[in-house]
Structures are given as C-alpha cells and as structure tokens.
Design brief:
The protein is α/β, with parallel strands linked by helices and 511 residues long. The chain contains 13 helices and 15 strands. The radius of gyration is 24 Å and the shape is elongated.
Length: 511
Amino acid sequence: MNDFELIAKTFMGLESVLAKELTQIGANNVQIGRRMVSFTGDKEMMYRANFQLHTAIRILKPIARFKAASADDVYEEIKKIDWSQYIEKGKTFSVDSVVYSEEFRNSRFVTYKVKDAIVDQFREKTGTRPNISVSNPDIRLNIHIAETAATLSLDSSGESLHRRGYRQESVEAPLNEVLAAGMILMTGWKGETDFIDPMCGSGTLAIEAALIARNMSPGVFRKEFAFEKWPDFDAELFDTIYNDDSQEREFTHHIYGYDIDMKAVNTARLNVRAAGLSKDITIDCADFKDFTKPAEKSILVVNPPYGERISTPNLLNTYKMIGERLKHAFMGNEAWVLSYRQECFEAIGLKPSIKIPVFNGSLECEFRKYSIFDGTMKEFRQEGGIVKTEDEKRQMAEKHRFKKNREFKKRLDEDAENAEADIRSFKFRSFERRKDNDDRRGSFGGKRFNRDEEKSFGGKRFDRDEEKSFGKRGGKSFGRGRDGEKSFGKGFKGDRKGGRGFNKKGFDDED
C-alpha cells in the first residue's frame, strides 16, 4: 500500500507523548507541531492510529492544500476537487472548520462555503445533491485555515477518540480520557508497580492505567470509526487489526482508586465494570487524609480540585493535606499531581523534581512529580536516586514553548463551555489581531469479539447486530466485579492473595 500524509490531533502539552506512541506503532516521518503530530503511513497505519493510540483526539487525512485570501477562494478551490470519489450517491457529509485568520471572521461562514461548493458540484454534474448530517454523517470533512494557508482533510475518526466507550456515568468536570492517558504515559509507568489514584472521581485515571498496563488498544470499546463508512474501507484488514491481541501483556500488580464521595465511587465502579477491568482495579470510598503507606511499591497520580469548575471548602488546606500525606505515608515512592493554581502547589509544601506544562481544557496546568524519600536530596542522589530522567528534562523544556506561544489566546464564545476538553466542542471564532505584539499563529496546532469476564475484550469479534450493552463492539458484559465488597488493605473477596492495599489496615473501613 502507498503511504500518505496523516495528522493526529491532541491537546497542548501531549504532542511529544503522541509522537512517541506513533513511532512505537510504526508510523513514518513523525513530526511534532502544536496540538498535532504529522506522520505518514498506509491504510493499515491509519486504522491502527485510530484504534491503538491513547493520546490522539482524532486522525485526519489531508486531501487538499491551497491558498485562500477570501471566501470565494475557498469556494473555488473546494469545487476543483472531484467529490464523487469521496461522497457516494445517497451519502451524507458534514464539515468542521478551524480558522485562525483576520480575513475569515467566522468559522461557520467557512463551513458554509465548503458545503456550498460540494453541493453545487453535485448539482451541476448529477442534478442531485448530497445531504448534510451533523449528528451522524457518512463522511466528515475538516478544513483548517491559518491566515491564508488552508488544509482540507477527511476525518477518519468521527466522534472524538477520547470517547472510548466505557464511560457509563460521569462526575462533575471529569478528566478527559486522552489527558489521563497522556499523564500516565508521562510518568513512564507501564504496570511495573501498583497504581493509586486517591481522588479518582469517575475512575478515568484508573481505567486508562489498566489499559496502558495491559497494553490494550483504547479503540476496543468504540462502536465505530468514521473510516468504516468510506468507499474504500477494507473490512477484512480492520478485522485483523481489531482481533489482534498479540501485543497485550500480563499485569501482575493492581490499581486502586479512592474517593471521599460515595456517588463518585459508585460511578467509578460502574465504569470499571463496563470496561471489564474489575480484575485489575479496586474502587473504594476513603478520605485521602486517612491515607497510609501502601505495602507494595506504588506510583500515585492525582488530579485534585482546582477551584475552577469544582470548588472545595478550604481548597488550600486540601493541598496542604496532600503534601502532608505524601511526606509521611508515601516514602520511597513517586507521586504526580496535576493542578492549575500556583498557590495550590505551594500549599503542598514539597519540592517537585519535575514540572510539565499541560492544558486541561483551557486551563494551563502543570503536572508535577514528587520523589518522596527519607533524608536529604544529597543522600538520595548518593544512593543512586534519580530526580529527573533525560526524558523528563526534555518535557520540562516544553514550558518555554508554552510561554512563547499561547495556544489558548483565541477568543471563544462566552457560552462555548469546553465541558469535556473535547476538541470538537470548541467553537472557534475569528478575532482581531491586537497591535501589542501578540503572536497569534495558526497550526494544526467479520467477527466481533467478546472477552471473557476475566479478560475483557481480548477474544473474538462478533456481528454488530449482536451488540448488547453500552453500545460497544461485542456487547461487553460486566466482568466479575469485586466492587460490591469492601476492603482497603486486603482487596475484595476473590482478589489475589493479600490484595495489595495501602497497608495492612489501610483506610478506615467506613463509607
């Protein structure tokens, strides 16, 4: 198969993580941009990118590049394309526009021009026109205009790839799945130790950690991808990719999620069961202030409230408590904290060994690593302790790029809330270039299977009309949940011997 250009979109701060993922699955010519990574590959690579990448929001296939100084230019250039090779008779389409330009004052106007050009071409050639469908089109198009440089692409993903398919319920301000996966990959953890999220919310970090630990493809939960509706879709090729679990690995440790809110705990348990990962993940109700040292080597990753969309009483005291628990109950381990406010980090009272800038929605956050050890830093290093790896030093350098080029200086509609940090929920509008040296640069930035209850989504693929629960391929039934039984230190009944928890007793056994 011939290689062609592809673009993987992601969130600001995750580009290098995504580039590494692409290299690992065999992509060629991988180049990092802003909120995107370009690469080349064939049809199989495009399918794999959608199915296997943890940190991509969507995969675009550029089909035309042109200069457009006006709306008429956009119309004429789009009309030059032979649309019969992309949109078959009776099929529907939609257009998404992302515009960074003084010339084009409204992204919707660009969308309309693209639609008009396509519809007019069909009318002139066939006397009929394709229909527009916003909710479930057969073909999705994406046009990106940066000043006068326009790129038109086929969207091979459809619904944003962060929508894995396992989330049944949510809590307020849930952590985006792509961001959660990116955070875990930044830590370098791949299942070598236990994993703890003491403020787990709906369980996103815990579930994404299990997928990474087992090297499971996140696309396994998806009902469909946009490329499955393309005229040249190769169902046999995709079935081969879908059913190949040869790269999955055993996970011999365990993942623990805790939350003080019983409603969040129940939500997380439901999502874990929907993902068929109850064997690997234990969710319980507990307050982080009662956190005690885990019996096994562990990594802790936490996304506490920021005081933005979620507020808690005594926010700074919450962070002070986090620092105190880490210092006294997590010696010899690593902790990673994502937050937004500088004063929150200061309240932790611990010196971070690394600070990595990332965006959570429109908030410029930092993801900080804390190496918790006894004694002084000098003693820790003398004993062979590593504070920053070379890769972590490189990630920290991203901070300077953030300062130079603020991607989120765009003016958004006041009512356009980025509810789940989904790139498709942004409503980009034109803006006037300020005269105060703001540098606003644009960029791209047949069997279905059903895993058994012990190993979800690893078996055969079965027909889509047999799908049952949760809208996933294979009608995934709940795995053998241990979630109904409580224990912090010993794990659930039927868990591995000892079921590693926080310690012998763990948290107080109270809801």
